[in-house]
Amino acid sequence: MEELQRFNELYNELLAPDAPLYAGQMLQRAAQKWPDRLALIFQDESLTFKQLYQQASAISLYLENQGLRPGDKVMILYENSLNFYRAYHGAWQTGAVIVPVNTFMHEKELEHVVNDAKPDALIVSDKLATSLMLSATKHIITQQLLTQLIAESADYTPRSLGQHDLSVLLYTSGTTGMPKGVMLSSYNCVYNSIQGIAQFKSLPDDKVLCSLPLFHSFMQNGCVWSPCLLGAAVIIVPKIDRKALLAGIAHKPTVVLGIPQLFALFCLMKKIDFSHVRFFVSGGDALPDKIRNYFELIYGRKLCNGYGLSEASPFISVDIDDTRCSTNTVGKPFVGIEIQLRDEAGNVLPSDQIGTLWVKGKNVMLGYYNAPQATQKVLQDGWLNTGDLMRVNSHGKLVMCGREKDLIVHKGIKIYPQEVENCLMQHAGVQAVGVIGAPSCPDGEIPVAYIAARDYTDKPEILSAELSELCKQHLAAYKIPRAFFILKELPATATGKIDKKALRIVHQNNS
Known about the structure:
This protein is α/β, with parallel strands linked by helices. It has 2 domains: about 1-400, 3-Layer(aba) Sandwich (Rossmann fold); about 405-510, ANL, C-terminal domain (GMP Synthetase, Chain A, domain 3, 2-Layer Sandwich). It is built from 16 helices and 26 strands. The strands form 5 sheets. Strands 1, 2, 9, 10, 11, 12, 13, 14, 15, 16, 17, 19, 20 and 21 form a 14-stranded mixed sheet that branches. Strands 4-3-5-6 form a 4-stranded parallel sheet. A 3-stranded antiparallel sheet has the order 7-8-18. The longest helix has 17 residues, at about 50-65. The radius of gyration is 23 Å and the shape is globular. The N and C termini lie far apart (about 55 Å).
């Protein structure tokens, strides 16, 4: 009930029908309410909300003077930095649609995004500028020009579109094909931020450690939108390495958001002072038992598991209760989110059965940009097909069982790769696992495992035997991988997930 009360208070303040807050007004509101409160910390620099607003406003004025109008698209290609925030808010205040681009995209993916979004303006760092990007738009703010603009500072009255018009265009990582543009409205962004603030019990004096790439939807909400609405600070870490992380942690964050691989690195670092942290939240990928158990053993703190996807702005649930439960438990749905579990035919299942999770709420996207058929496949009567297999436990919490597209069907029996991967991760020498289904006539598919284990690449037969024996101790015979492929590392997406599409291609080529 505490979450519901907090949600209602914020909703009435920010989204009341008579005067709803437009997303591009977030920063001005923060500057007016908390002008001297710290907004951003980056290495040895920091900005208050007033300073950030004035610097962003200089960019807003420039873009408007160049002819940019509400509804035009501004593509942002920047590393984690103060400039990312300046560019983001500067463009958003003009009523523009923000298109933050994955800084690790392959050139072909980037070309697809540029051709699909057709940006009216581009704000790009020197390091990431390419001839493709620079030829794609006539309005370009280079790093040198941006530096000149923010030195002037300014005041600017944000322009606004309708609450349900396109406001942010987030391109997915494209693990099942070329990236698709997820269309989010201003209402989606503000609404899901309110949901998250209520569920996380966020505080105005929180400091959020931002170490994942800012273009990711997890960081968009957790480190761009929500802190601005709350008046909280963000500690920006330029990249995930030990030195940069320790420098960020020295600023004493109270909330740490990350993917499982980040918390695995914390386990290797072992002696970090986390006494000031209230919550550690893992998202973006399945959290293995091994990482959670090691983290909690080393630091004596709960590692909370969260769940979401870009199409839901992105938060759906998080397990922050101070109780012990299975690692794949991702908590109760946020206030305002309805859920259904459905079978392959679309029939609604009892909550204790495994089914595909469908969600409904005001945080659900408008659809995919320029892709009506893809939109129709996942959006039906306001319900979003997440593509994730779930069940609901006796406490009403969602329990992850894997991705629908990763499901392995062997002789008509379903095998959930996440269960097999979790078992294999128990081996001390295993760093990462990807279990996929390999075609096998007449059995349908058989499970095979790709293992990242640097210390075993010269003796794969030893590790394979040990993993097979480990599986026999914990899994039914039909779930045990028929083959183990030992590599130094596994292909990963820009956000750190194991790229199973790439693994399937590798396996197909080697078969």
